[in-house]
Amino acid sequence: MLILQLAIILVTAKIAGSLSVRLGQPSVLGQLLIGIVLGPSVLGLVTETETLAEFSQIGVILLMFIAGLETDIDDFKQNGKASTYVGLGGIAVPLVLGYFAGKMLNLPDTQSWFMGLLLSATSVSISVQALKEMNQLNSPEGNSILGAAVIDDVVVIIALAFLMSFAGGDVNLTMVIVKKVLFFAGAILIGWKLVPWFLNKFSSLRVTETVISSALIVCFVYAYLAEYTGVAAIIGSYIAGVAISVTKFKHEVVEKVETISYSIFVPVFFTSIGVTAQFGGIAEHFGLIVLLSILAILTKLIGASIGAKLAGFQWNSSLAIGAAMVSRGEVALIIAGIGLETKLLSQDLFAVIVVVILITTIVTPPMMKCFFKSDMQVQDLA
Q: How far apart (Å, rounded) are the C-alpha atoms in residues 218 and 24?
């Protein structure tokens, strides 16, 4: 069954992606939408399974690994200020307005703050693909977006740990912070000293494809350690890619990882997002879904855009950066799952939030296309 589902996903994802490009949109939008068509909500040709979810997880890890490989360290450092402003701006506005939205829904303070944190989350895995297609991944805007995603993830997870401990959950806030500090310190040190040595040694083994194998080992180990310490796996794989990007193996790794990723794992990831969509009871909560979706989109767009503007970007570029931060993706889904388990979200509200997260993910690519196109037209006129 899995083999047939993979065949269906690959052929439809490629066709839908091509149609999306023909219509002037990023290919990822077509792959997201075809996932909804294939899934239980429409045709039921593909169902959500644990194995398919693992394929999807590998896909997003490899996608962010490629983003790290294509990152220019010098450009990344130059955009540190912008990343900080964008990340913090993209947290502050959704956090505050999300809290007030919770209060309007008659939620207690703790649950309202959880709503704010949930809306503050960002996952730029969808944005990375759109940036690649528009040749903006290594631009100042692209580097700012990637750096802001790291900051967003760390700040939101620490804030979530603080909220959980305050709410009486079994959370050691000090340990949460220590684990994250140790991860980033260790990741930087290992990436600087150990990764180049490991690639050199492992690639000298007398078997085939040792370079790509060694790179994938580094990627998966970083992703695992990031997840183990409470940082998103995609942040770990991104840092692994950055570590390898400064070695002599960069170009070979990029070429071969892209072949592996875009042939199977990445299309499965994008399509699986649509497959997991559940629209049962959507009519009953339609008004709430619309309002929360508008809130989710505008708060992240406005907050991140203001941060970019304060960092010195023009308004067109600022809005493009803000649009790229709108998608909540798998990071928000993980946080929502935590909320459901800890009773900070009711079952009905959890179902609403999942649809809202899906909507933010679907609207991100066309928003980015619109704002980046506008930005490039302004630059051409200048």
A: 36
Per DSSP, 314 falls in state -
pLDDT tens digits along 301-332: 999 999 999 999 999 999 999 999 999 987 88
Domain boundaries, given as residue ranges, for the chain: 2-376
**CATH topology for the 2-376 domain:** Na+/H+ antiporter like fold (1.20.1530)
Nearest to 340, CA basis, from 330, 351, 327, 331: 351
Task: Return the biggest CA–CA distance within the chain.
Answer: 65
Residues 6+ apart with CB under 8 A from 151: 83, 84, 87, 88
- Taking the C-alpha atoms of residue 337 and residue 355, their distance in angstroms, rounded to an integer, is 13
* Residue 7 burial (C-beta neighbours within 10 Å; 0-12, 13-18, 19+): exposed
CA distance 110 to 345: 11
Say which residue the tokens 């992240």 belong to: 300
pTM: 0.86
Q: Which value, to the nearest 10 degrees, does the dihedral of the CA atoms of residues 75, 159, 103, 357 take?
A: 50
pLDDT digits (tens, 9 = 90+) for 8-41: 999 999 999 999 999 888 899 899 999 999 998 8
Contacts of 181 (CB under 8 A, 6+ apart): none
